[in-house]
Amino acid sequence: MKLFYSPASPYVRKVLASAHLLGIADSVELLPSAASPVARDMTIAPVNPLGKVPTAYLDDGTALIDSRTICEYLHEQAPEKGLFPAGSDRWEALRLHAIADGLLDAALLARYEVAMRPEALRWTDWLKGQIGKIDAAVAALDASVDHLNGREDIGSITTGCALGYLDFRFAHHDWRSNTPKLAVWWEAFSKTPPMAETKPN
Questions:
Q1: 200 neighbors 167 (Cβ within 8 angstroms)
Q2: What is each CA distance from 19 to 69, 110, 124, 125, 146, in whole angstroms?
Q3: Is residue 96 part of a domain?
Q4: Does residue 201 sit within a domain?
Q5: Cα distance between the two ends of the chain
Q6: For the domain that residue 154 is a member of, what is the CATH number?
Q7: What CATH number is associated with residue 72?
Q8: Same domain, 185 and 98
Q9: Tens of pLDDT along the chain (201 residues)?
Q10: Given 34, 66, 81, which residue is the final one in a domain?
Q11: Which helix (H) or strand (E) holds 34?
Q12: N or C: which end of the chain has fewer CB within 10 A?
């Protein structure tokens, strides 16, 4: 599998961390990209009209678009590892996955508002709204620590990528003070191979 990537993208990190968890990271060939929030990467556009990362394509030419789709594909390469677990565990994993993905969506929108939009055009209420979503998602994950403890699947991987992105891009935003249980969980989970091997730079 070939993967268009950016080392700073938390969605790319989700894919790479999943591959590490499944023990198939060596089968992923990384391709550089120049995708940005305001410009499609025209190298990617032939296989993904959105021109964004992560985008993967297989040896048979099949394009896989979006981190969720790519992670589903990776799961099928090693289903016994339970990246997407079965039964009732599946729904809890997907619930955590959705909350953490929503946190990432809000964090990226907040990041773009500050890093990409000219200062004179920035919308303070928009930024506050995204930060509010971040804080609500972090609180919900803190309340779910009992479900995160001992979990190694798409739920914990995405939660780790979301918290890692906050540390990477929002170091000034102290999310730990009000969510001490989640902070303890992340301190330990950040040292696991899928997280340690995919830390953004």
A1: no
A2: 13, 28, 38, 38, 25
A3: yes
A4: no
A5: 23
A6: 1.20.1050.10
A7: 3.40.30.10
A8: yes
A9: 999 999 999 999 999 999 999 999 999 999 999 988 889 999 999 999 999 999 999 999 999 999 999 999 999 999 999 999 999 999 999 999 999 999 999 999 999 999 999 999 999 999 999 999 999 999 999 999 999 999 999 999 999 999 999 999 999 999 999 999 999 999 999 999 999 999 987
A10: 81
A11: none
A12: C
Q: Where among 51, 81, 111 does a domain terminate?
A: 81
List the domain range (segments joined by +) for residue 48: 2-81
Number of helices (H), then strands (E), belonging to the chain: the values are 8, 4
99 plus 37 within the same structural domain: no
Total number of domains constituting the chain: 2
pTM of the model: 0.96
DSSP state of 28: P
Determine how β-strand 63-65 pairs with β-strand 55-57. Answer: antiparallel
Q: At what angle do helices 10-22 and 154-169 cross, to 10 degrees?
A: 140
Tell me: do 65 and 93 sit in the same domain: no
Closest CA to 54 of 161, 174, 170, 195: 161
Residue 23, sorted as left (phi over 0), alpha (psi -120 to 50) or beta, turns out to be: left
Question: Is 5 exposed, middle or buried (CB count within 10 Å of its CB: 0-12, 13-18, 19+)?
Answer: buried
Question: How many C-beta atoms surround the C-beta of residue 134 within 10 A?
Answer: 24
| 3-state helix/strand/coil string of 43-94 | CCCCCCCCCCCCEEECCCCCEEECHHHHHHHHHHHCHHHCCCCCCHHHHHHH
